[in-house]
Amino acid sequence: MRILAHRSVLVVSRMLSSRAAATQATPVAPQTDQKWDLYAGVLVERLPIVTKTLEPIEAKFKEMLNQIELEKSLKSNHELRKETEKQQLELLKAGKIDLDSEALKQTAQDLEDAYNEEYARFKPAPRVTEADSKNDTRSLDRKLEQTLVLLVEQKLGSKSHYLLPQGLHRKGESLRETAERTLKECCGDKLQVTFYGNAPVGFYKYKYPPSVRNDGAAGAVGAKVFFFRSVVKDPSRNVGSDQVKYQWLSQDELQKQLQQPYYQSVSQFLL
What we know:
Elements: H1 2-25, E1 35-46, H2 56-72, H3 77-93, H4 108-121, H5 130-134, E2 148-156, E3 159-163, E4 166-168, H6 175-187, E5 193-195, E6 202-207, E7 220-232, E8 246-249, H7 251-257, H8 260-266
Parallel strand pairs: 1-7
Antiparallel strand pairs: 1-2, 1-4, 2-3, 2-8, 5-7, 6-7
């Protein structure tokens, strides 16, 4: 038994030695460093202008809460004044009190009638605008209940695509500075935005087609895009450049407009 065990150990040790020798003899292919172009992209959002229309169950729940609040609420100063003046008027008619005529010159009921008349003249702004009826995707005055995202037409290779504004990073710039410069070059000075921070919120990379890759050993094989989030300060100030083709699209429209791999990356940081 000891002899068989000794032989088994020798066989295993020889097998391990041969594998180690084969591993050392096999040359390891060196990994080639690939160069990538760095880009900064900007997600520009126009936030909703009006609150969303309530769903039926939401409207019913809101009505129930309002009814509960009304039943448990105390009387306001206007209601107390109205009751007091009503009692004074009844006593005045009965001749039990004598009030100065100036005291009842403008009663709470008169104020209430004036308020109701003013409210009847008030007309809220429409939720559906002219830009909605024309489906003007260049207008910020559409889809007031939703968030709109800016897309600009940019040329990649020989074709043009609608993408989030993006620009090539320059030496000496931070990515945030590249994003600010890119947005200014694409959209002009009229569009004013506020950036949320200095850190990117998303990332996307793609390889260039072989026909448009840079020549030489140092040529870039593709682009890495780091996205920054920003919000429009004043919705009345739109893109100021007439030479740029742009669109303001909702999330549903983005899914139809953008290519699927690109949209999958962008949708990760859409609110």
